[in-house]
Amino acid sequence: MSNQGDSNQITREYFDSILLETRYWDSDLPSAEMTLFGERFSTPVMTAALSHLDNVCPGGAVKMASGAFDAGAVHWTGMGEAEELEAIVETGARTVKIIKPHADDAVIFEKIEHANRIGVFAVGMDIDHCFNSRGGYDVVTGLPMRAKTSEQLRTYVAASRRPFVVKGVLSAKDAEKCAEAGVAGIVVSHHHGIFPYAVPPLMVLPEIVRATEHRIPVFVDCGVESGADVFKALALGADAVCVGRHLMPCLKKDDGAVAARITEITQELMSLMARTGASMLAEIDPGVLHFRAF
Amino acid sequence: MSNQGDSNQITREYFDSILLETRYWDSDLPSAEMTLFGERFSTPVMTAALSHLDNVCPGGAVKMASGAFDAGAVHWTGMGEAEELEAIVETGARTVKIIKPHADDAVIFEKIEHANRIGVFAVGMDIDHCFNSRGGYDVVTGLPMRAKTSEQLRTYVAASRRPFVVKGVLSAKDAEKCAEAGVAGIVVSHHHGIFPYAVPPLMVLPEIVRATEHRIPVFVDCGVESGADVFKALALGADAVCVGRHLMPCLKKDDGAVAARITEITQELMSLMARTGASMLAEIDPGVLHFRAF
Amino acid sequence: MSNQGDSNQITREYFDSILLETRYWDSDLPSAEMTLFGERFSTPVMTAALSHLDNVCPGGAVKMASGAFDAGAVHWTGMGEAEELEAIVETGARTVKIIKPHADDAVIFEKIEHANRIGVFAVGMDIDHCFNSRGGYDVVTGLPMRAKTSEQLRTYVAASRRPFVVKGVLSAKDAEKCAEAGVAGIVVSHHHGIFPYAVPPLMVLPEIVRATEHRIPVFVDCGVESGADVFKALALGADAVCVGRHLMPCLKKDDGAVAARITEITQELMSLMARTGASMLAEIDPGVLHFRAF
Amino acid sequence: MSNQGDSNQITREYFDSILLETRYWDSDLPSAEMTLFGERFSTPVMTAALSHLDNVCPGGAVKMASGAFDAGAVHWTGMGEAEELEAIVETGARTVKIIKPHADDAVIFEKIEHANRIGVFAVGMDIDHCFNSRGGYDVVTGLPMRAKTSEQLRTYVAASRRPFVVKGVLSAKDAEKCAEAGVAGIVVSHHHGIFPYAVPPLMVLPEIVRATEHRIPVFVDCGVESGADVFKALALGADAVCVGRHLMPCLKKDDGAVAARITEITQELMSLMARTGASMLAEIDPGVLHFRAF
């Protein structure tokens, strides 16, 4: 059987097909600072909503949060016990808690309520985990998932006293539904290749940005691993990006490694901003991009 | 000499060049049920019109039919003796019998009559077997083939008291001729690479669907090996697909293997239907497809 | 240094990027017969204007001619002594004698006169041999070459009592000049990669055919090695093709090998004509071609 | 991490994607002579503004200059002590001195003044060296660099009594700023891949030429290594090219090696000019280019 359907490989190749021109005159060192939901951060490079980081190293989820905090970055987190989330929030990291599309909405509301109570930065759902690859609902670590309606999405938004975000948007249609339901932000993602032949996030990003007309922030996930990747995502209309897999090896290194790599990626981004005449994130110009067709 | 003309490889690469966006909100588990010629089936995944399956395992043709029956799938069969066809039909599989373009029309009419009599689901002809690769008529297992006219096609359609289908359509022109001759369905196919540099079925499928204006069902053959392939074919306008070579190894496994693989492919298809917001086959939206050019 | 400039490899890749649809209904066995300069041939597959075939096998030039004759094909020949040309013509092969762009026009006129006298089929010049790769005139086996003007071309045409053809046309501009000078046919060719990064003949062929408005026959040379290649050249507007390198190994085999391979390629062509509904060369339809962009 | 962002490899692939048609009739041996800033040179092939050539061989900078002089080519030079520049100028080579964007403008003015005084051919700045890859200013061999404004550029132009050129232009926007500031020429360059995913110089060259409306000469740098590369750059609107890395191995060979390779490349260029009907540089016709998309 063909193995050309690896969505992560396809996504990598799309990143790599985008080239940059430069604009040096009247440029200078830029700022990569970002404002999100009324708060100020050092970088648009955020950690991704990873789960089960204890499998990488003991206390991995908290270590990742500390890294994000030290780097002045927004932190995202995925599945995990209430205690783990509390430990994450205690690091000081401004944390977006992503909740799975549990079959029972009561579970979802309880998790939203807990996150609200302990003071997360935002809360959200990775809707792309509702189905499995065999035509049924997914079951994640024994917990049953279920499909959700726009109507249900409105109830999650209403229940959340924090910004509510949706992760797993990979079309203008879903982006529009999120915007209409009052979602505070969306993550363009195929969940690290949760299905084959996924269109690369950057390939649908311009359509999504047009569809939501900049009413809500748009984040990009999947395969981001350098400042060049971040630059391309922002130039195509993203407000920030999530870096996941690429940071996981840092968890096995010393305590500063996560923050150091986030800072490095940010510096790589700043270098390309400087080379293309953008003094702040909002000035990154899609006109500097060129697309390979050779 | 160049070996870049392998039609199966080219077809594989075209499948692989098609990418998918997702639409999760308001989606739910889909049905893959299909109605064909007034009957209801569990899946649009059909077996292909293979011949000589005894060479794979003894009783292979009947074993394939049983598998299709168990999976609730339409069964297709190719060359074979009258007794073999009768055994196939006795499995209960709703069977499309494909007849070769024999030089002598009397042979064709006799085979149509036999198929009619024993109650096949449909009957048809694989017109792409009339010529060989050396500029002459083909001879298949000693039997002479011949080119056929639209006029002759009308006589086959008339002789058949069942739906008459044509396999081996790979252009809008041939599709139009089939529709005008009263054919009940066409199979877009290059007969597993019977000639080099064949255009991939999915590349001409949209033209063919436009040309026949949905008056007759259009099936896709050649290289289908996963639910993703099926999804792409259906999104581009096919009503169902035939899976051939990919199922042959199942004949060497235990009795349930053919049905199991048809069911698996159907589940893979359903998973992608769910992820793209299609609750039934007719709702699969070509708008979810993106084409690689990078 | 890059070795991606191999014109023969680029030409091969362009052949390979062209795909075919089929049209079986109302098609039948075709004829590949060709009329050229008022004479009838069995095939549009011609030998190419090779030189120095004695280096392949003793008497190679004559053996190639005999092969062309036996296959009912037009024969082309390149550099060689008067005696060799006479032996070639004596085989009965209808022979196009290609003369180099010798510095001294007297040499050219003498060769035209000799060819006229011994009854060649046509005579011509491979203009692409006038320059070398170091910015000077070429010297071929010690003989000095020189650039030529349209005015000189008219004198060659006038001197020839046979059809005069030009080999080495790779642009609409040169094709127009040839047509205006009264040339009887042109060979679209980069002389087997005589310079790097040559555009593939088939890529400029449609422009050349439009420019010459079918006033003169257009032949295609370089890398033709199968009936599929011939079919694509004819579909894009060529009247015939030359096969050179691909036939050279046949010279080392038994006497019938050249004719056998020409016949085989012709049969491969006929097979594709049959599959695409062309009963004669003039009916080959460019509409059956599809171009890869995936 | 992906290593597909190698700007030199991408640049090579773009060169390789450009193909050439030919125009032989009425063509003849061309001249590759070039006039620049009122002086006449034998070739549009110039040496690139390399630095630290002593690391390649002792006296490398002067050896390169002598090579350029012997070949009748314009010589460019990068960083180096005043004494080295004087020795270079004493070779007789018409030399373009490229100055780094030093943090302290006084350093720049001093270097301009020195170059003026010793009689260089032209002076300029490689603006693409102002930033490093970590979001800060670059430091080159211990010397601090800084970003520069168009206003500062005007002061450099004014200070120079020679033509002032800018190296490191890779967008129409920067080219326009250079033209408006009175710059005498620009080098389209990504400084041998100083950042990843740089658009190939030839890909933005046509835009740059349109933007500057032929008011100032445009040079192309990066990856030029053959006459075919030079031809393509000139056909797309460049007035001349710089060859750097490709000439460095010549420094390790005997004294004539640099001049010999410049001459060879020029001859390769002349060969392609001859084959495409250009008798002088200004006659090179973009219409002979074809772009691969297969």
Write out key terms for the chains shown.
homotetramer, 294 residues, alpha/beta, two-stranded antiparallel sheet, 9 helices, globular
Notes on the protein architecture:
The structure is a homotetramer of 294-residue chains. The longest helix of chain A is centred in the C-terminal third of the chain and has 19 residues, at 257-275. The model of chain A has no long low-confidence stretch (mean pLDDT 97). Chain A has helices spanning 7-16, 60-70, 82-90, 105-118, 150-159, 172-180, 201-212, 227-235, 257-275; strands at 18-20, 34-36, 39-41, 45-47, 75-77, 95-99, 122-126, 139-140, 143-144, 164-169, 185-188, 218-220, 240-243, 289-291. In chain A, the strands form 4 sheets. Chain A has an 8-stranded parallel beta sheet. Chain A has a two-stranded antiparallel sheet with strand order 1-14. The two termini of chain A are 28 Å apart. With 294 residues, chain A is α/β, with parallel strands linked by helices. In chain A, strand 10, helix 6 (172-180) and strand 11 (185-188) form a beta-alpha-beta unit. The interface between A and B is large, with 42 and 39 residues.
